[in-house]
Amino acid sequence: MMKRFYFFGFLILMLFDTLAQVSFKFASLHATPLTPSAAWLWNILKSPWIYGAFIGYIGAFFTWMTLLKTAPVGPAFAASHLEIISVTLISIWLFDDNLSLAKAAGGLLILAGILCLAKAETGLAEVEIEPGPVGKGGGV
């Protein structure tokens, strides 16, 4: 049951984070040129993409808080970075970004790190420490 909770929880977290980053990219493309002015800010606020970014961040915040109630923080923090991979892949499709060997290797290393942390956490949970005999003296 908890595996399913974590799987869908981190999937939802990744989707919210990806929505936020892609929405920021679209908002920035529609708000050029960048000029620190009220007109530029108003132009950003008129873009529906900025609200997609807000929804993404708010959704990610609440999803993250829900996951942290039960997930071990080390593997959870690592898994929370899955959006790096999803944003990279979506950017190739939507923004014609290229997938270099370094990006592909980095994505694989992120996945490998998450899997190693999850496996280590699972292994630690399965280890039971058996108490020694109580009341029996033993010398050092």
Layout of helices and strands:
Blueprint: H1 2-29, H2 38-46, H3 48-68, H4 73-79, H5 83-95, H6 101-126
Protein described:
The protein has 140 residues and is mainly alpha-helical. 74% of the residues lie in helices and 0% in strands. It is built from 6 helices and no strands. The chain has helices at 2-29, 38-46, 48-68, 73-79, 83-95, 101-126. Helix 1 runs antiparallel to helix 3. The chain is globular and about 55 Å long. The termini are far apart. The mean pLDDT is 84.
Task: Provide a concise account of the structure shown.
This protein is mainly alpha-helical and 140 residues long. The protein has six helices and no strands.
Q: Sketch the topology as an H/E string, one letter per element.
A: HHHHHH
The number of helical elements comes to 6
Q: How big a fraction of the residues is strand?
A: under 5%
End-to-end distance: 45 Å
**Rg computed from alpha carbons, rounded to a whole number of angstroms:** 22 Å
Q: Report the helical percentage.
A: over 70%
Secondary-structure-based class equals mainly alpha
Keywords:
140 residues, mainly alpha, 6 helices, globular
